[in-house]
Write a sequence for this structure.
């Protein structure tokens, strides 16, 4: 069967624009001779639509778009993602659904069974799970070779295999159930966000299930950035032996045409059902230990490797994810250009490089704002970076602005020694200037803080935290350095000044200041951060791995008490398994001390 995997980049809520994109891909699939076209999860709405789903008009408009799309669909079958109303008077009002469109009509509707409510997912807030009878998620399609029975599933339905998931979150396995009732081919419509290392686990998971049941899997994933999430595409087709036979682009739209061999064809007169030679139901399957050869130590909830093990492919994937997420966030919110502060340090340098790749350097404005404590090399590095990247560059000293603040507050602060307050006034002076440029010239302001700083609160509210998007807020400092080196290698020359990479990190808010005055080396901090935030390990476990006890306890205290700052931070792009933001919901007013 010739199948078109329509890997699209929808915009959340742009129902008309998404409808047009569907029609364009369907036309291209038809031209390529496809017999079936498959779109991602909630493709007409964009994922995740969040509380737009609570608006009746939004659901009405999307259902009208589905009917319009069906009316214009002929010549091939189409599977499209949408939100359907729950006809049952009890339960949540909607279903996460896919529809089969055929000959100008909605031929059938199929509902997602497993609704994730962990990390960044909150689907039980909106959706009622599908019915338990998996026969309702079987569809019959016809190709040049005959009739086929397809098992329909949506994203999470494919992620509950008891052989590979260390702790299953659901009691049922929709894929095993679909196979037990006669599916010859599995189609999965997904909106699966990027996490470093996740795609390798996807391939392992999908291949294991294909081998287990001897049936091919067609997985179609959304691509693009929607708010904090970046979707990497990487749609795949895996044959019944577990072999990867086709793969879509990473981080780009794609129309992937694949010839999929179906292991068994139904005779024209044979009804849909469960022939005797199909795999038995899950309850009759051998115990998990019988599949020990297919097991892995990787857990589905831990995708990121330890901070000292980044490979070139990892760096390329994270860099592309950040560029895509940045580009889509800016464009989908209606901006056309960006501005950011350039300190001469590595964080602002990497953020500027990402912006130049996302929009072209002519759409990026860099502003150096030296204070009386700024070193000559910092100003020079900022200027060199702007020149290397081709950015628009301005220098606006803040010495007089800072002095005016100090003078204005002198009466209130009389008799008090200077401290971090005066240091923060410098950062807040820069924030005021950058926000003014953003307002006047309609540039989106990018913040440049990394995950390590945000974790321990080494950032200033209403200062360097001002902005519309925190581009690298989920990138640990050690990874910032690695990505910067990767970028220079990929360009074949020094784009980010080597001096910015090599210099000792400093906020330069007082004479001879360095980050290591009050923080451990970033390799140590990031190791603790990874274990405490992403692996959810307690201090005893972290100390047992060789970290200094006093350092561990102090960093954990800093991480916990900085929650109030993170709650006020700009949204950031998620690239690790546990980002700060709506996927990590910690209380601010709390007194738990591990």
């Amino acid at each position: 069967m010739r199948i078109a995997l329509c890997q699209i980049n929808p915009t959340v809520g742009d129902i008309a624009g998404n409808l047009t994109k569907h029609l364009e891909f369907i036309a291209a699939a038809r031209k390529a001779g496809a017999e079936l076209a498959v779109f991602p999860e909630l493709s007409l709405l964009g994922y995740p639509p969040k509380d737009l789903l609570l608006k009746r008009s939004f659901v009405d408009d999307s259902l009208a778009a589905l009917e319009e799309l069906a009316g214009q669909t002929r010549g091939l079958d189409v599977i499209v993602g949408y939100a359907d109303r729950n006809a049952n008077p009890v339960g949540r009002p909607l279903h996460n659904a896919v529809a089969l469109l055929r000959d100008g009509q909605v031929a059938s509707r199929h509902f997602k069974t497993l609704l994730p409510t962990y990390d960044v997912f909150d689907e039980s807030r909106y959706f009622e799970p599908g019915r338990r009878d998996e026969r309702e998620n079987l569809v019959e399609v016809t190709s040049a070779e005959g009739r086929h029975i397809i098992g329909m599933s949506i994203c999470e339905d494919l992620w509950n295999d008891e052989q590979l998931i260390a702790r299953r979150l659901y009691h049922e396995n929709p894929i095993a159930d679909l196979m037990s009732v006669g599916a010859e081919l599995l189609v999965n419509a997904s909106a699966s966000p990027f996490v470093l290392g996740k795609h390798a686990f996807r391939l392992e998971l999908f291949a294991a299930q294909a081998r287990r049941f001897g049936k091919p899997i067609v997985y179609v994933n959304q691509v693009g950035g929607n708010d904090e999430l970046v979707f990497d595409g990487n749609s795949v087709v895996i044959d019944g032996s577990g072999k990867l036979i086709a793969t879509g682009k990473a981080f780009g739209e794609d129309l992937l045409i694949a010839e999929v061999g179906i292991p068994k064809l139904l005779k024209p007169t044979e009804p849909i059902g469960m022939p005797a030679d199909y795999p038995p139901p899950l309850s009759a399957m051998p115990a998990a230990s019988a599949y020990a050869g297919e097991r892995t130590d990787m857990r589905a909830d831990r995708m990121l490797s330890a901070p000292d093990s980044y490979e070139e492919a990892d760096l390329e994937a994270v860099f592309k994810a950040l560029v895509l997420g940045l580009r889509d966030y800016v464009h989908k919110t209606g901006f056309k250009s960006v501005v950011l502060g350039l300190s001469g340090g590595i964080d602002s340098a990497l953020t500027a490089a990402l912006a130049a790749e996302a929009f072209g350097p002519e759409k990026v404005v860099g502003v150096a704002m030296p204070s009386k404590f700024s070193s000559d090399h910092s100003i020079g590095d900022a200027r060199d970076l702007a020149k290397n990247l081709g950015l628009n560059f301005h220098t606006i000293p803040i010495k007089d602005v800072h002095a005016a603040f100090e003078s204005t507050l002198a009466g209130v602060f009389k008799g008090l020694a200077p401290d971090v307050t005066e240091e923060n006034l410098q950062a807040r002076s820069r924030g005021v200037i950058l926000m003014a440029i953003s307002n006047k010239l309609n540039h989106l302001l990018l913040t440049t803080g990394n995950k390590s700083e945000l974790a321990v609160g080494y950032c200033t509210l209403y200062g360097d935290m001002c902005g519309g998007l925190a581009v690298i807020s989920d990138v640990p400092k050690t990874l910032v350095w690695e990505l910067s080196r990767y970028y220079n290698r990929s360009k074949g020359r020094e784009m980010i000044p080597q001096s910015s990479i090599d210099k000792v990190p400093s906020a330069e808010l007082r004479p001879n200041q360095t980050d290591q005055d009050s923080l451990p080396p970033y390799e140590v901090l990031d190791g603790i951060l990874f274990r405490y935030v992403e692996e959810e390990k307690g201090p005893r476990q972290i100390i047992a791995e060789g970290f200094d006890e006093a350092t561990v306890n102090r960093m954990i205290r800093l991480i916990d008490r900085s929650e109030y700052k993170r709650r006020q931070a700009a949204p950031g792009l998620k690239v690790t398994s546990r980002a700060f933001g709506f996927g990590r919901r910690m209380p601010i007013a709390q007194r738990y001390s591990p």
The chain has two domains: 2-294, 312-514+563-567. Confidence is low (pLDDT under 50) at residues 265-305. The CA atoms of residues 538 and 544 lie 10 Å apart. The longest strand covers residues 77-85.
